[in-house]
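queue> pop job 88
queue> type: inverse folding (structure -> sequence)
queue> payload:
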């Protein structure tokens, strides 16, 4: 029998571990499959197993202004918040590499990651207090976008910091010795090295912002709903198959987004390997 790394690592305990992993996977996928199945039912309420097979509820979601408008609002908030979080997270990671004090780097890194540990409700209540004090922010999405961006920024910061840690530390001093200014070093050396990590951070930031509902409850203007907020309201009013149809569409969108990113990452890695082989054979 093949002496696999898994067997060498945990021995015969691998069978219980694999069993627990399988059960955990079922706990994740089975509810999702139930949601997908109930979205095709012909009845006007959620029932499993579904009765009949009809795409009516998908058509209703795509033609209902409440759902389409909420989807457009979520896209605007997610796109704007992602851009802000990528800019702030990337600038923070770049600035951190230029600090000489390890203590300062450690403290600043902690400050950038802290928003990931703050309870969203506490964060939303704090921003809501700001919203009450500044009347100009109450009728638009500015504070919601900024709040979502700050919530997603740590993910970008972590991804970009990971990319910078893999870079050759001698490149920047060499470029500076040759007379390059720091904006030129950032543009020609740093950004090309971390472009893939910035894209990965942007994907995570977009997903976090798009799915976030707590800030929308507190900061969305009156009469404006994001898609997660619309789904929350729909779940409280009546469990219609519209809700499961919308959930399925959002899940499929996430799968397509992550699949496209994975395909891009694989192609980028393949090109990098080909360039490395050419360099070694030249």
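queue> result:
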């Amino acid at each position: 029998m093949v002496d696999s790394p898994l067997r060498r690592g945990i021995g015969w305990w691998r069978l219980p571990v694999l069993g627990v992993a399988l059960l955990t996977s079922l706990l994740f996928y089975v509810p999702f499959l139930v949601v997908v199945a109930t979205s095709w039912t012909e009845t006007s309420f959620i029932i499993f197993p579904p009765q009949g097979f009809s795409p009516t509820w998908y058509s209703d979601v795509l033609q209902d202004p409440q759902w389409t408008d909420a989807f457009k609002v979520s896209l605007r908030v997610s796109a704007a918040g992602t851009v802000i979080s990528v800019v702030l997270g990337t600038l923070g990671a770049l600035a951190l590499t230029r600090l000489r004090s390890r203590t300062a780097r450690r403290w600043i890194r902690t400050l950038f990651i802290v928003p990931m540990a703050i309870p969203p409700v506490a964060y939303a209540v704090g921003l809501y207090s700001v919203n009450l004090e500044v009347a100009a922010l109450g009728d638009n999405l500015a504070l919601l976008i900024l709040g979502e961006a700050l919530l997603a920024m740590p993910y970008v910061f972590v991804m970009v910091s990971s990319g910078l840690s893999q870079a050759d530390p001698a490149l920047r001093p060499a470029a500076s010795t040759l007379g390059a200014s720091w904006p030129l070093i950032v543009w020609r050396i740093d950004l090309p090295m971390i472009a893939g990590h910035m894209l990965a951070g942007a994907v995570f930031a977009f997903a976090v912002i798009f799915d976030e509902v707590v800030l929308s409850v507190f900061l969305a203007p009156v009469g404006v709903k994001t898609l997660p907020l619309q789904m929350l309201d729909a779940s409280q009013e009546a469990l219609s198959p519209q809700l499961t149809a919308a959930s399925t569409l959002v899940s499929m969108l996430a799968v397509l987004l992550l699949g496209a990113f994975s395909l891009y990452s694989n192609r980028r890695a393949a090109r990098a390997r080909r360039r490395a082989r050419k360099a070694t054979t030249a």
